[in-house]
């Protein structure tokens, strides 16, 4: 199974983005038995969908999983719904801050992941890995990428399996943020590897 895994560059004043670090770690280790391609997307409402579409054309994956960082995540947050809304609380890395605009002018209000998320959530729990299902990926760049990914899957037929997962901060990102949850990189990487292995049997 051909797998595309995407992460994002840092944004909003952070020096790291765990989603980028996961992609780097998995592509360096060649991800074991997984047939994996990784791409780092810009945190840009205009450029990220273009870069994603290009990656989908190059890889033509059966499974595409987008990864993003959320300051609110304290575990693997499995996203169910992408919204056709862009509404940014902070500017993206191009200093663009859309409000009440659409991802796709002609698109449906919401699209649903094609991953077996309930089975995935149970699988992770059985292995003692904390995860939860979320019903919104927000209205920032991650949601735009998630929506674009699902729309491409619907219109082109690939990826057949498409989804998005938000991950927590890395420890070094929270030194001045005492209340913020975090997980070590090695733990997040092994969780994502477990998720990809589970999904690659679907
Ligand atoms: N998280 C942001 C965009 C990039 C990222 O890693 C989000 O949740 O929209």
Bound molecule types: pyroglutamic acid
Instruction: Give the helix tally.
Output: 5
| Lateral strand order in the biggest sheet | 2-1-3-8-4-7
Tally of DSSP β-strands: 8
Q: Fraction of residues in helices? A: 25-40%
Order of helices and strands: EHEHEEEEHEHEH
Q: Could you say which overall geometry the principal axes of the C-alpha atoms support?
A: globular
Cα-to-Cα separation, first versus last residue = 9 Å
Question: Which regions have little confidence, pLDDT < 50, spanning 5+ residues?
Answer: none
Structural class: alpha/beta
Specify the biggest β-sheet.
6 strands, mixed
Sheet-strand content, in percent, reads: 15-25%
Mean pLDDT: 96
Compute the gyration radius: what is it?
16 Å
Task: Write up this protein.
The chain is an alpha/beta fold. Helix content is 32%, strand content 21%. The protein has five helices and eight strands. The protein has helices at residues 18-28, 47-59, 117-126, 141-156, 185-199, and strands spanning 2-8, 35-41, 63-69, 76-79, 81-83, 110-112, 131-134, 161-167. A six-stranded mixed sheet has the order 2-1-3-8-4-7, sandwiched between helices. It has a two-stranded antiparallel sheet with strand order 5-6. It is globular. The N and C termini lie close together (9 Å). The structure holds pyroglutamic acid (PCA). The site of pyroglutamic acid has 12 residues, from β3 and α4.
């Amino acid at each position: 199974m051909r797998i595309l895994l995407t992460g994002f560059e840092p944004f909003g004043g952070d020096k790291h983005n765990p989603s980028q670090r996961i992609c780097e770690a998995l592509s360096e280790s060649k991800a074991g038995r997984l047939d994996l391609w990784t791409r780092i997307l810009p945190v840009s409402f205009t450029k990220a969908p273009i870069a994603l579409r290009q990656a989908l054309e190059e890889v033509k994956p059966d499974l595409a999983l987008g990864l993003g960082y959320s300051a609110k995540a304290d575990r693997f947050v499995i996203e169910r719904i992408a919204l056709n809304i862009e509404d940014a609380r902070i500017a993206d890395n191009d200093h663009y801050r859309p409000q009440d605009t659409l991802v796709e002018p002609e698109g449906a209000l919401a699209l649903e992941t094609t991953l077996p998320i309930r089975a995935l959530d149970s699988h992770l729990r059985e292995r003692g890995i904390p995860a939860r299902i979320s019903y919104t990926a927000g209205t920032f760049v991650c949601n735009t990428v998630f929506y674009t990914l699902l729309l491409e899957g619907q219109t082109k037929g690939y990826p057949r399996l498409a989804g998005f997962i938000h991950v927590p901060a890395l420890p070094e990102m929270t030194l001045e943020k005492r209340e913020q949850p975090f997980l070590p990189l090695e733990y997040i990487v092994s969780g994502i590897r477990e998720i990809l292995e589970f999904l690659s049997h679907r």
